[in-house]
Inverse folding.
């Protein structure tokens, strides 16, 4: 659907508060116009679409991706509303101390019974680029610390890459892989897999230049076995009491 373009010159000039106010009102109203068109289109294709939507959700997939506006989860996967449970943040991170992402994983695994968990990064990620910047970025520092820790874990490999663009792209991939590993370390995933043989955790990267998804081929079984010595949370006297 079409989007409104801001009146660049007028917005930059002084004394055009009325123009700015009108643009803001129109850009807000434009969304509701788009929404009405979307509803009409859905009903034309399936008159029962919204009845089905209201009946509940049973998505097969949990998608954890970057908040970048150029990466619409449903669209790049060719899925409809109700088919994918989505969580997004800057640079598709999965810190074990982030109650937001941990709550999403728990709900998706324990209640929605998703079969696949996907961590999807994208090339040209601003969050990863910021983490490569040797500067104080204020409130972003603790969040970007996770990406810098990924660099530290893979320092030998990354420092051996002479080309800066290639190094940047590889860090994006490694960041996805480490986020996938953090998911595999959770009790919810380990216990569900032990009982049901799902979910499987995947790592992907979306390429903005051609629209294609790249499977990083995270070996779920191998990763699960490799972390068990230290991160084995599948057992316990009362598994129902586990919250992570």
């Amino acid at each position: 659907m079409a989007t409104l373009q801001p009146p660049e010159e007028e917005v930059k000039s002084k004394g055009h508060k009325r123009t700015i106010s009108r643009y803001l009102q129109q850009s807000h109203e434009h969304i509701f116009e788009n929404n009405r068109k979307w509803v009409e289109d859905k009903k034309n294709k399936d008159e029962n679409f919204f009845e089905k939507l209201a009946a509940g959700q049973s998505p097969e997939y949990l998608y954890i991706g970057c908040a970048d506006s150029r990466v619409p989860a449903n669209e790049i996967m060719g899925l409809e509303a109700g088919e994918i449970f989505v969580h997004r943040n800057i640079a598709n991170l999965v810190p074990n101390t982030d109650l937001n992402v941990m709550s999403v994983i728990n709900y998706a695994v324990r209640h929605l019974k998703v079969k696949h968990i996907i961590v999807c990064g994208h090339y040209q990620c601003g969050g990863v680029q910021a983490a490569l910047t040797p500067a104080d970025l204020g409130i972003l520092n603790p969040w970007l610390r996770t990406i810098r820790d990924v660099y530290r874990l893979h320092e030998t490999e990354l420092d051996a890459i002479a080309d800066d663009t290639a190094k940047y792209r590889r860090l994006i991939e490694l960041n996805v892989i480490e986020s996938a590993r953090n998911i595999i370390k959770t009790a919810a995933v380990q216990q569900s897999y032990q009982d049901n043989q799902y979910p499987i955790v995947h790592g992907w990267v979306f390429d903005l230049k051609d629209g294609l998804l790249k499977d990083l081929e995270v070996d779920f079984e191998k990763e699960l076995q490799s972390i068990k010595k230290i991160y084995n949370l599948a057992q316990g006297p009362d598994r129902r009491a586990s919250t992570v």
